[in-house]
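Dear colleagues,

For the upcoming journal club I promised to circulate an example of a predicted protein-ligand complex. I picked one with nickel (II) ion because it came up in last month's discussion. The inputs are reproduced below in full, followed by the predicted structure.
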Amino acid sequence: MALRTILNKRDEALSKVCRPVEKFDEKLWILLDDMIETLKKADGAGLAAPQVGILRRAVIIDVGEGLYELINPEIIEKSGSQRDVEGCLSCPGEWGYVTRAQKVKFKAQDRNGNWYEKEVEGLFARCVQHECDHLEGKLFVSLVEEFVDVEEEKL
Ligand code: NI
């Protein structure tokens, strides 16, 4: 495994729509393993492949409920609403309130190409929505309703 560089929001890779993952091969597994190591080092909750410069639909999430790999994820149901402070590893120092669905049901493939479905809520649901936005070239800062001072919020 190796650490990858997390791109800053100014990098144009972060505004591109990503292509589906088609090959579930060793190249994908190395990417995912590298993303896992990079996410742990950065102490984040989620990371999308475009954040390390790979324009493919692959995401990893770890919000303390185990590590999930979402390949070609699709949100198939959304319900409720939550408003909370959000940040992004590609936008260091920027934090702000974003309203998201409280619950989402998504389907995705695992690293071997097997489809699975999962229903999540709260922070996990927020993270799925945030990471799926990355795959569309969309950053959370475009959704922020009110930016906050991180020192005051103690995040
Ligand atoms: Ni992000």
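Two points we might discuss: DSSP finds three helices and eight strands in the chain. The chain has one domain: 12-154.

See you all on Thursday,
B. R.
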